[in-house]
Amino acid sequence: MLRRSRAVLTASIAAMVMVAAPAVSQGASPDTATKNDAVQRVLDRAVSEGGAPGILAEVKKGSARWFGTAGVADTSSGRKLTSRDRYRIGSTTKTFTATVLLQLVGEGRLSLDDTVEKWLPGVVTGNGHDGGAITVRQLLNHTSGIFNYTNDPDILAKLVGQGFLDHRFDSVSPEELVKTAMSHAPDFAPGTSWAYSNTNFILAGMLAEKVTGRSLATEVTRRIIVPLGLSNTYLPGRSTSISGPHGRAYSKLMVADPAAPVHDVTEMSATWAGSAGDMISTAGDINRFYSALLSGRLLRAAEQKAMFTAVPTVNWIPNTAYGLGMIAQKLSCGVQVWGHGGTIHGSLSWTMGQRDGSKLASVNINGDWVDQGGISTAAMEAVFCPASGARTDIGGEPAADRPATRPLQLS
Q: Where is the Beta-lactamase-related domain positioned along the sequence (predicted)?
C-alpha cells in the first residue's frame, strides 16, 4: 500500500448502500463452503455496516477453493461479483517486483548487498540522498530512508479530489517519480529506521530492468505469470483500462469528508504507481502466486530465507513486520500470516497465507473509502482463527489495536 499524506484520513464508515448478495461457491465442495460461513458473514457486514459497494473473497486450502461475495460489481446494473473479475491490486505488486529481484540474486546476477549506485549511478542523489550508502536489501524492506514520492505535495494534488479527475489519464515515468523523491530530504539515514516508501520499489523495478536489459513487465511475465499459469494477471503499462472481465471501481478520491461524492474510476493511468503498485489480477491468481511463493517454488533457499527475514514496522499497520516485499501480520489469535495488500483508487485488496503456502485468503473491495484494515483483518481472522472467537467487527472500534482514524494508503 502506498502511504498517503497524514493530512488525508479515512472517511467515517458510510451507511448501508447495497443489499448483501448470497455466498457463491465455485470450485469447492459444499463442505468447504460451509466451513467459510464466518468469512461470508464478514463480507455481508462489510456491505451492510461498512458501506462497501461490493466485496469478494477467495480462500484456497490445498486444491480446494471457496469463493464468496456481497454487494455488487456495478452499482448501475446491479451485476454481482464473480471469481473471474479482475481488479487493480495496488501494492501487492511489490511482492512480484521483489520476487524478480530475488530470482536475479539467486542467479548470481546481483547481490542484496549491492548498492543502488552500482546499478543506477547518479539516480539516488541530492538533498542528503546517497545511492552509494543504500543497498538493494534496504530498498526491498523499506529501511533505505528514501523519501516517498507520493508524499510530495504536487503529486498528492494529482491523486486527491478534483486533481485526480483532472490528471487521471496522465502518464509519468519511473525516472520522473524518483526525481521528485530526490527533491526532498531522506526520512532517515539508511538502515537506521523503517518507513514505507514507494520510491524504494520504483527503484527496484528500474534496477531489475537494468540488470536484465528487459522491461519489468517482460520479466514478471516470463518468470512468474507464465510458469504459474496466472492467465488473469498482467502489468498494464500505459493502458488506462482493465482488460477482460471486471467490475467497476468506485472512489471518493481520497477525500476525508464522509459526504464526498462517489466517482467511477475504473479507467485510469496507474503509471504513477508503476513497479510499486500498478498490476491487475484476480483473487484466484493472487492466491496461486502466494501459494507458490510461500511454499518455496519460486525462490532458492537463501533468497527465500532473505524474503521472510522481517524487520519491525514503524507507525504503520499494527502487528506487522516487513520482509523483502512481504508483510508479516500477527492476528489476534497469535497466528502469523504472510502476504501483502494494496490500495489504489477504487480498489482495496489484502492477501495473506500460512507460511508453508498451504492456506491462502484474498479479499478485494471495489470502494476505497471503507475501513480496509478492519474488514481485511476480520476476514483473515475468520479464515485463520476460526476456533478462537476472533473478532469480526466491521467499522466499529472495539479492537484496542485499531485507531479510530488512520492514514489512508495508496497502492
A: 40-351
Q: Are 2 and 349 in contact (CB under 8 A)?
A: no
Instruction: Point out the least confidently predicted range of 172-176, 256-260, 331-335.
Output: 256-260
CATH number of the domain bearing residue 64: 3.40.710.10
The Cα 152–Cα 208 span in angstroms is: 25
Name the strand (E) or helix (H) holding 102: helix 93-106
Interior angle at CA 139, CA 137 and CA 142, nearest 5: 105
Catalytic residue among 48, 91, 281, 347: 91
367 vs 63, 150, 253, 406, CA distance in Å? 30, 20, 10, 17
d(CA 251, CA 366): 8
- Tell whether pTM > 0.70: yes
Could you confirm whether 91 is annotated as catalytic? Answer: yes
Sign of CA dihedral 171, 175, 178, 179: negative
What are the grid coordinates assigned to 371, written together?
A: 475501513
Residues 6+ apart with CB under 8 A from 88: 242, 249, 270, 278, 279, 280, 342, 344, 345, 346, 347
Per residue in 57-89, pLDDT tens?
999 999 999 999 999 999 999 999 999 999 999
Range of the domain at 266: 2-410
Q: Tell me which DSSP letter residue 207 carries.
A: H
Q: Which of 341, 331, 306, 342 is closest to 383 using CA atoms?
A: 331
Which DSSP string corresponds to 150-166? Answer: GGSHHHHHHHSTHHHHH
Q: How many domains does the chain have?
A: 1
